[in-house]
Predict the 3D structure of the following.
Amino acid sequence: MTAKIELHLHIEGATPPALAREVAARKGVSTAGMFAADGGYAWTDFSDFLRAYDRVAALFTTLEDHRQLAEAVLRECAKHGVIYAELAISSDHVAEGDPVRFAEYLAAITEGAEAAETAMGIKANFVATTIRHLGPDRAAHAARLAVECGHPRVTGLGLAGDERLFHPADFAPAFDIAREGGLKLTAHAGEACGAQSVRDAMDALKLDRVDHGVRAVEDPALLARIIDEGVHLATCPGSNMALMSYRDWREHPIGQLRAMGVRASVSTDDPPFFHTDMSREYLELASAFGWGPAEFAAIARDALDAAFCDAQTKAELAARL
């Protein structure tokens, strides 16, 4: 199986539906409307997806819940050949700004990650992810938590949520805190909104990479800048299909982006919500663009170059690619 690197994966968004059902049943929480007829999660559009995501995330309230979730998500990744994953985690979802609770949460998901690594060989780090639609003040507080926790697996700060709200410049203070604290930086842009959202995020937040970023293909000058600066795009084609940004895998910009020299990798975002996994992503892209082992090896190398991990970990992972 091809070894894969996954940079763009939200921990609650990757909750296996069977685990969500199990946790809900254990707690006596109603799942009415949570699941679709096919067994996946039910949602209709981008806004409804965000609500569905929050509903699933709310199931996980105890440290054991979080430990179990981290292990389950990483085991599922490993089944599809992922040898390293960066999990987007949110203190807003789990700690509500409390540094003690956040430290306990990190200990729990680290235990889960260690269990998955022992069982499956997968390594993982965490990207502390601020929620855009909760506003800049909450983002700055989350950034301080991420820096002050001093946890070795918290290696980056991200920005997710509703891309249509606020301007990236509103979050510059949060990203300044993270940068000064030694964290790497990424942000969602160019998914629900156009190329300008990518430019704005790059300008205002001084990113190390961009999550999604595919709408940059609509702006030749921006594309030239991305190529010149070597900006990495952690794209999620299956997610873009599910959210109707594109209707056919052959139309997805990743083929054009990589042909032009953009360093674009493949991730799954929120896989059970979008009926995807890393195996499906690779199969669909192989069919759409005729890619084979050489192309996918290059994608994995680009992803590893952009990973928020130390040089020793990168060397160990490179030996496995």
